[in-house]
Amino acid sequence: MNKTWWKILGSVLVIYTAIAGLLLGVPRLPILNESIRNLYFHVPMWFAMIVLFSISVFYSIKSLSSKSEIDDLKAVESVNAGIIFGLLGLVTGAIWAKYTWGQFWSFDPKQNFAAISVLLYFAYLILRNAIDEEQKRAKISAIYNIFAFPMMVVLLFVLPRLKDSLHPGNGGNPGFNSYDLDSRMRMVFYPACLGWILIGYWVYTIRFRLRLIENKQQHN
Amino acid sequence: MQLAKEVKYLIHKEVLLEWRSKYTINGVLLYVVSTIFTCYLSFISLGDKLAWNALFWIIILFASINGVSKSFLQETKGQQLYSYVLASPAAVLISKTVYNILLMLVLTTIALGFYTMVFDSFTPPDLLLYYVAAIMGSISFSTVFTMVSAIASKAGNGGMLMAILSFPIIIPVLILLIKLAKNAVDGLPWENSYDEIGMLLLVNVLTVATSLLLFPYLWRD
User: Fold this and answer.
1) Contact B214/A127, CB-based, under 8 Å?
2) How far apart are CA B14 and CA A215, in angstroms?
3) Average of per-residue pLDDT values in chain B
4) What are the chain A neighbours of B179 within 8 Å (beta carbons)?
5) Is A148 part of the contact surface with chain B (CB cutoff 8 Å)?
6) CB pairs under 8 A between A and B
7) Which parts of chain B fold into alpha helices (H)?
8) Would you call A164 helix, strand, or coil by DSSP?
9) Nearest Cβ partner for A116 among B171, B203, B210
10) pLDDT (tens digit per residue) in A102-152
């Protein structure tokens, strides 16, 4: 029970937000209307992605000093899990955009920068594939991962604020802060974020354990 | 003090090597000039100033990838070992970065001159601000590409890896640069550009700081 409580908590929270997110009342805001419910499914993906990428950077830093293979595997598997959430974030955003903006992809700055930051991590995975020697791979990819992380932060949090975007929160569209004032949405949004972060972490631990077993088999 | 001495010596070495062969500077210069010429011949009917601006930055981007990536990719194992014994990793990185900044400054200045000469209608009203953007571009491209080329050269798989690794990192910088240059093309007052200049300086400080922290690990084989 000590080790599984957070998995149960994560699952319960995600199930709760899936049901409550579709059924509970939401404020009527112009432009957004009912599509505001996407907040519960789209935004938590980015939070989960950021948390997983931060875990990856943490283990990359650790692997540079410890030189242990375990830390390297943890770094790459959290990137793998983070990319899943990044792609889900792009897809949920695109579906929402189809109904509110009329197009899946309209080259909005936020869409572009999110896509580029996912590209950054694909580049990381390709860099790993390019190097055969394990220790060298661990070292060089850890360095690239740490080098790229500040750029991702700039891409996702700083640059979109300098450009005109149609994304909620920018350019006269009702945004995060005006949702936040509504306590009904807060009841669902915060549990959704926590739940998806926990699920993301769970996906990462499973992937890591699988990788560890594969690794052991290869060495035998 | 030791570091400053090493950096000075290494920059001297780089410049001397380049002066003897004049390969990189002439090669990249010819690359830029022929690309500008090709673009002029292909886009002759394109009248939009903003498109010209974007085109200029794309040309500079590819030229700088070609020029800067030489710094580590071209060195042999022996040369790397030589500088490894001779100097601290920080000195190697700083000297390469400074040398690349110098190279890129010469290159962008000539390219900008040639560009405004070929495209008469392009000449931005605020040439000084445009030149500031070009200087910021040289500095940012050099700091980012120097580190990425070090990573790519250690990975042992030169050209393609360099492009894949550097593009996602350079895109935010490139967007800021194009925005800054666009302000110059539109002839906006300087106050409107302080945000971009500040952001670019911040990104550069961030890049140099992380590079200096990480390079010693990369350098040690």
Assistant:
1) no
2) 44
3) 86
4) 162
5) yes
6) 75
7) 2-21, 23-42, 49-73, 77-86, 89-118, 127-155, 158-186, 194-219
8) coil
9) B171
10) 888 888 888 888 898 899 999 999 999 888 888 889 999 999 999 989 888
- The question of ipTM being above 0.90 is answered as no
Range 111-150 of B in CB contact (< 8 A) with A: 147-148
B-interface mutation test, from A156, A159, A163, most B Cβ less than 10 A away = A159
Judge whether A45 and A85 are in contact, CB under 8 Å: yes
Q: From the list A117, A123, A155, which residue is nearest B164 (CB)? A: A123
DSSP-assigned letter for residue A34? G
The pLDDT-based confidence of A169 (bands split at 50, 70, 90) is low
pLDDT single digits (tens) B80-116: 888 888 888 889 899 999 999 999 999 999 998 888 8
Q: How confident is the model at residue A79 (pLDDT cuts 50, 70, 90)?
A: very high
The number of residues in chain B equals: 221
Q: By the 8 A CB rule, do A193 and A43 touch? A: yes
Judged by a CB distance cut-off of 8 A, whether residue A130 touches chain B is yes
